Amino acid sequence: MADIASLPGGNSPWRSAGRFGLYFLLISFGAYYILPLIVVLSTSFKDLDEIRNGTLLSLPAEINLESWRYAWSEACIGVSCTGLKPYFWNSVMMTIPAVLISTVLGALTGYALTKFKFRGANMVFAMILFGCFIPFQVVLLPMAQSLGFLGLANTVPGLVLVHIVYGLPFTVLFFRNYYVSIPDDLIKAATIDGAGFFTIFWRILLPLSPPIIVVTIIWQFTQIWNDFLFGASFTTGGGQPVTVALNNLVNTTTGVKRYNVDMAAALITAAPTLAVYVLAGRYFVRGLTAGSVKG
Amino acid sequence: MTNSMTEKSLPAKRPLADWLRWNVAKLVVAPTFALIIFFVYGFIAWTGYVSFTKSKMLPTYSFDGIYQYVRLWKMSTWHVAMENLLVFGGLFILIAIVLGCLLAVALDQRVRAEGLLRTVYLYPMAISFIITGTAWKWILNPGLGLEKMFHSWGWESFSFDWLINSDMAIYTLVIAAVWQSSGFVMALFLAALRGVDSEIIKAAYLDGASLSRIYLVIILPTLRPVFLSSFFILAHMAVKSFDLVVALTGGGPGNSSIMPANFMYEMTFRRNQIGLGAASAMMMLATVMAIVIPYLYSELRERKHG
Amino acid sequence: MATLTIQNVKKSYGAVDVLKGIDLELENGEFLVLLGPSGCGKSTLLNMIAGLDTITDGEILINNKVVNDVHPKDRDIAMVFQSYALYPNMTVERNIGFGLEMRKVTKEDRERRVDEAARMLQIDHLRDRKPAQLSGGQRQRVAMGRALVRKPEIFLFDEPLSNLDAKLRVEMRTEIKKLHQRLGTTMVYVTHDQIEAMTLASRIAILREGEIQQFASPQEVYERPANMYVAGFVGSPAMNFIPATVVSENDRLGVSIERTARGERSSVFLALPDDLQSIGEWIGREVILGIRPETLTHRSDAEMTQNKRLQPFDCQVEVLEPTGADTLTYIELGGREVIARVNPYNTSNPGETMAFMVDMGKASLFDPKSEMRI
User: Fold this and answer.
1) Is the bond into C237 cis (omega within 30 degrees of 0)?
2) Nearest to C81 among A185, A203, A207 (CB)
3) DSSP C273
4) Residue C191 and residue C159 in contact, taking contact as beta carbons nearer than 8 Å
5) How many angstroms separate the CA of residue C246 from the nearest CA in chain A?
6) CA geometry: angle C139, C140, C144, nearest 5 deg
7) How far is C178 from chain A (nearest CA, A)?
8) Which of A95, A273, B92, C322 is the most exposed, fewest CB within 10 Å of its CB?
């Protein structure tokens, strides 16, 4: 739209002043967003003396990775001093299967709901979609009970189950909205050519799906990795995911408060999702918009 | 005789194959649908039922009317939580929308390094609220954070103690939540701005309208759906907010910055007041539905018109 | 090759009846065109023949076998879609061969048949391209190749030419006609374009709101339309409809048309040919006279003495529209705008009175109430 800025008659001293104001605005808000990251990063490289004597924005004298090492393998979380490491792996073990299974189920369900429409398919979709909107507090209690009943309380498989179930509404939504835009004629043609439900999915639909698969995986990965509520409600001690462990580490009150370790731990926890964001930001934004505007 | 019997029974295989062929879609949807029915609808019903009992540490199933709701609304902590939700939600939504919209319009002016700026504005959305809370807790730390920085810059009288001030703690949540979410609102608006019909703008330019007038009078009104979407999404996030409070203020000082989600968690998992926790969860569901249903209604109506 | 029989086929979605009892019977090797405006149910009927839509009531038979519950892939049909429906992720070669692959045809056999089809449609140089790299016309050919390669009993076409530009459309129309002549396979073709219908069909079924208006050969449909709807739908410019009264003058039955010329009311009498004299019971009653523009032209005395069915009248010219070959001449008859097709060298200027003749042997009469042919 901004073509207008380059149209004739737009040049005047006011315009230059306007441009200056524009960049001032953009850069100062850029600082608002980026400074916390810089502060956290530089704090994580400082030792405690530097922190006490310097300020937020003073840069570390040297890149000191001691607090990163400590946060990773020694810091006390609650009573056990193992560092974030085991919890980080808990999160990995929880996130990967939950993302994969919910994506596969979402793709198949979205496909069946759009391309093999049966009576009531729209109603079924609406009922699944409802799951996107509930505050999870209304399922916490029965879920805790059920996990106990299933023997999955305080285990990674239990969290995998929880994240699959409550991720499904989103994955179904993504795939359904994507498959709706693929012409039905393709499915008709393949049916006449003799392909069945799964052949059509495997040979025709799936090769067209990489964009939405990437969006869904990124969305699910971010949601599940960043989850705190389920982790805090259904796990204790060694079974916790890394977000819960981070919170416990930061709020562990024994001994000297080591801010540099807190910051290093926060960055370790944030690293996987930040990496995804940097590597595939375009898909990330697409997922956000797809997951929120229409869901 | 036996021969003809077996011959007759052979084609019976086909009906099954045919049945499978026509019903395979239903069979594929069934597991997902069953999971949702059980874990969403079943669980809501369960929570709903428990909210009408006197369950404490363990659920009991004798119906006790609206006892828990009466109790809930008599608790000052719950009132604090609901008031906090109003204050936090109102400010958070307002600031995030204004800021997001402003940044989107600014980015839409053919600026240099737009990609970089967009990346910077949006990255907080990729990280957990727990991390956001941890980071801002450090920055707003009254002894070592911003306050100390301003002191060292010579502004000795500067004082910033919102984190430990029970009147102000709720606003620290707004600062951190806006930091995390306004980039997302910006992305929504930017996408919509890019979709505005450029011929309308050219026509307005030919009519002699200035750039600011074009935005205020022509473009922003066409973005009404984005305002609505942003409002509903942010409101939804506000009601659900739990992690940020835990990480940044812990609901304190005292209970001054507690939110309904934290209240629910506290009652259910810490204080063994399951019935009360269930009642507060149902109140949250009602609040979210009060926001979501009009939103879905307007979305669906718009789609029909479009 | 196959016969196709459709018996009292109905389709309804809830309370909405899309097809209200369709009966059609096709011989081996016929080319049926289902013609009608959008929403008339023609595509639904085609989908039902293909097995892509369920049948509410009635029966569809291919080679005298009821196929209502037969899966599309077992019906031995092939279909060309309006959107072509090429698989975007496969090359031209694999697109064409996919149906054979699904039917477990061996690789060598498949390659041979794909080769044959590709050469027949002159797309063998495109075999390794993906659909996105093809032009509209090429995609159309690939879609036809995919149907062709299977050597089906029946070909189904769902508006296959409507996404092409005008020139290509004419080209591909001829191509399809050639294909039908070469293969002799039964074909069913859905379109809303009456020219496609006229040029391709051995028989046309005209549908309107889920009902067949007429099922006949193109010539029959053109010359003896069953009702005013068919008459108006087929032919361009459309047939002229003129309100008239059946009268008897000097022992000859004819129609009298009211008109106003230069403020004066008068009437034109046109005698009906002898084979239409049987409508005596209509004397004194209103009818609608249907005249095709090309049967209404400038008067030629030589022709009139040869053909007694040609009837003369004079009329003032309102507007001229030259098209090159003919000039469309607008006149007013019976309060309606009427188009005559006149040789460009025999036209009169607007405002002048011109001598016309009309071939009443090719005229149609319709009942103004039921709109049916008399």
Assistant:
1) yes
2) A185
3) P
4) yes
5) 52
6) 115
7) 24
8) C322
Which residues have C-beta within 8 Å of that of residue B139, sequence separation ≥ 6? A36, A39, A56, B145, B146
In order along its 306 residues, chain B shows pLDDT tens digits of: 333 333 333 333 456 777 777 788 899 999 999 999 999 999 999 999 989 888 887 777 778 888 889 888 988 899 999 999 999 999 999 999 999 999 998 888 888 888 888 889 989 988 999 999 988 888 888 777 777 787 777 777 777 778 878 788 899 999 999 999 998 899 889 888 887 877 877 787 777 777 778 888 888 888 888 888 888 889 888 988 898 998 888 877 888 889 999 999 989 888 888 889 999 999 999 998 998 888 777 777 765 553
Instruction: Strands of C262-363 (E only): list them.
Output: 264-271, 286-291, 296-298, 310-322, 327-333, 336-342, 353-359
CATH topology of domain B76-305: MetI-like fold (1.10.3720)
Write down which chains contact chain A via at least 3 CB pairs under 8 A. B, C
CA distances for C211 relative to A99, C8, C262, C264, angstroms: 52, 11, 44, 44
Distance (Å, whole) CA B269 – CA B265: 6
Task: Starting at the earlier edge strand, list the strands of the sheet with C252-261.
Answer: C264-271, C252-261, C240-249, C286-291, C364-366
Burial of A245 (0-12, 13-18, 19+ CB in 10 A): buried
CA pseudo-torsion sign B191, B193, B199, B202? negative
* Complex prediction ipTM: 0.85
Q: Regarding the domain delimited by A85-292, which CATH topology (the fold level of the hierarchy) does it fall under? A: MetI-like fold (1.10.3720)
Q: So where are chain B's domains?
A: 2-50, 76-305
Segment B11-31, tens digit of pLDDT: 334 567 777 777 888 999 999
Specify whether the CB–CB gap between A131 and A105 falls below 8 A.
Answer: no
Report the side by side order of strands in the sheet with C310-322.
C296-298, C353-359, C310-322, C327-333, C336-342
Please state whether the peptide bond connecting residue B253 to the residue before it is cis, i.e. omega within 30 degrees of 0.
yes
- Is C71 at the interface with chain B, CB within 8 A? yes
CA distance B130 to A227: 9
Tens-digit pLDDT profile for residues C91-134: 999 999 999 998 888 999 999 999 999 998 889 899 999 999 99
d(CA C186, CA C175): 16
Q: How far is B2 from chain A (nearest CA, A)?
A: 35
Cα distances (angstroms) measured from residue C301 to each of C40, C308, C345, C358, C360: 45, 11, 16, 12, 16
Asked if C82 is an interface residue toward chain A (Cβ–Cβ < 8 A), one would say yes
Sheet holding C31-35, edge to edge: C77-80, C154-158, C186-191, C31-35, C203-208, C211-216
Spatial CA neighbour of C292 closest among C354, C237, C347, C368 = C237
Burial (Cβ within 10 Å: 0-12, 13-18, ≥19) of residue B208: exposed
Please provide residue B55's backbone torsions phi and psi, each rounded to the nearest 5 degrees.
-55, 135
**Residue B49 to residues A47, A99, B66, B214: CA-CA distances in angstroms?**
54, 32, 11, 54
Where in chain A are the domains? 4-64, 85-292
How far apart, in whole angstroms, are the C-alpha atoms of residue B12 and residue A284? 51
Contact with chain B for residue A4, Cβ under 8 A: yes
Comparing CA positions, the residue from A171, A242, A247 lying closest to residue A212 is A171
Residue in this structure with the two tokens 């477990």, named with its chain if needed: C104
Distances C208 to A91, B147, C211 between C-alpha atoms, Å: 63, 80, 5
Q: Which residues of A touch C50 (CB under 8 A)?
A: 188, 192
Ranges of H-type helices in C13-135? 42-50, 92-102, 107-120
| Number of Cβ within a 10 Å radius of residue A272 | 20
Q: How far apart are CA A188 and CA B22, in angstroms?
A: 14
How many CA within 13 A on the CB side of residue A87? 36
